[in-house]
Amino acid sequence: MAAPSSRVSVEGTPDKLKVAVGCGVGATIETYDFIGFGTAAALYFGSAFFPGSDPLSASLLSFATLGIGFAVRPLGGLIAGHLGDRVGRKPVLVASLLLMGVATVLIGCLPTYGQIGVWAPLLLVAVRVVQGLAFGAEWGGAILMTFEHAPWRKRGLYTGITQAGFPVGLLLANLAFLVSANLDGTWAWRVPFLLSAVLIVVGILIRLKIDESPEFEDLKQSGQRAKNPLLEVLRDDWRNVLRAFCLRITETAGYAVAVTFMLSYLKMGDGPQVSESLSLFALTTAAALGIVATVWWGKLSDTLGRRPVYLLGCAVTVAWGVPMFLLANTGTAVLVVVVFVVSYTVCQNSLAGVQGAWFSELFATKTRTAGTSMAYQISAVVSGFTPLIATALYARTGWLGPALLFSAYGLLGLLAAVVTKETWGPGQKSEVDRLSQAKEENAVV
């Protein structure tokens, strides 16, 4: 662990909390936009853009559109990773938020199949591609800005604050859909997307006031920026890219089964037949609890280490697959809420809360944005098409297929966590204490 420079402090920068919250607000807005599409795809887009199909086929087509956004996220991550390590973290953050906002408002304005025919789903796909590029650029920049401003002993906590922006966005998106469900016709899904315009203005104003990462400023001043961050990280650190990719799949693809597919499953003809309002209420409750849970899991990783917390989350995911569907199949309101709360606050949040710090610590500063963004966003391709895969499995095997798929994702993460090095164990903590003490002694002298 290198000694901190005059610009970089073990105790973080004076603006560390403002940066964490500011990045979290941006993450909130982008998640509201991107995840809102998933809710709309599960509940509305089948009939609006793919009419004439039976419910199962409409769900498959709608989820395929959802998956396209995930498929292009790696491209957004690659572009942002290169620019983040070459130009800076802040410009990428502002650009990604602006691009996402424009795309989301356009979704709210799209004509339906009944109005313009086949052009409607084509336009939906085009705008979804733009959303995917923007969201792919978001995570790496937001997390690394927070990580590089944060105190070294509390990087799990601070990146957890930024990561909590994602459940906040999920909460706001589903609150918007819960309220708009009472509106007539297509306004039930248009209004939540149109409301994004207000959030984008707020987010841009906040992000423009955030200072650039001190670690990036050091790299730029010393002339040590990577000439080609993507090639360097693939050449020198491809193993960590692969490990982080597998670790991430458990969280993001698990979410795709437990939340995105589950929303559709609960209202399928031969499913439990749970009302849309109950499903959205259950997810909204889980998202609200997830705000606190994400930060708590991140803070816990500062105490126990990154790997122990991740191992726990993956083990619970492996065990939860079948019980999750058994509880959902009852159709009982309380148990449906339990399904979403456990799936989100434990299986998903325990992993998301740790990723910001762990993934950042796996890579060197000069290729950190490229490495983390690549692993994070390439895994999104798997998660993006997981609802489609889960729906196809359900058509052939019933609920057991998606349940076992969920557990399989957990097992993959469990194995990846075992072979990934601990970056915040006793040795690293002792080294930070030594550096901090040395700095205090120098200050006294």
Automatic annotation (TrEMBL):
Membrane-protein topology: Multi-pass membrane protein
Span of domain Major facilitator superfamily (MFS) profile: 19-425
UniProt KW Cell membrane keyword: yes
Gene3D superfamilies: MFS general substrate transporter like domains
Annotated InterPro entries: MFS, MFS_dom, MFS_trans_sf
Main location: membrane
GO CC terms in record: plasma membrane
Keywords: Cell membrane, Membrane, Transmembrane, Transmembrane helix, Transport
A Pfam cross-reference name: MFS_1
GO function terms (MF aspect): transmembrane transporter activity
Compartments it resides in: Cell membrane
Membrane-spanning parts: 60-80, 92-113, 119-145, 157-181, 187-206, 245-266, 278-297, 309-328, 334-354, 375-394, 400-419
SUPFAM superfamilies: MFS general substrate transporter (SSF103473)
Signal peptide: none
Keyword Endoplasmic reticulum attributed: no
Protein name in the entry: MFS transporter
Organism of provenance: Amycolatopsis albispora
Organism lineage: Bacteria, Bacillati, Actinomycetota, Actinomycetes, Pseudonocardiales
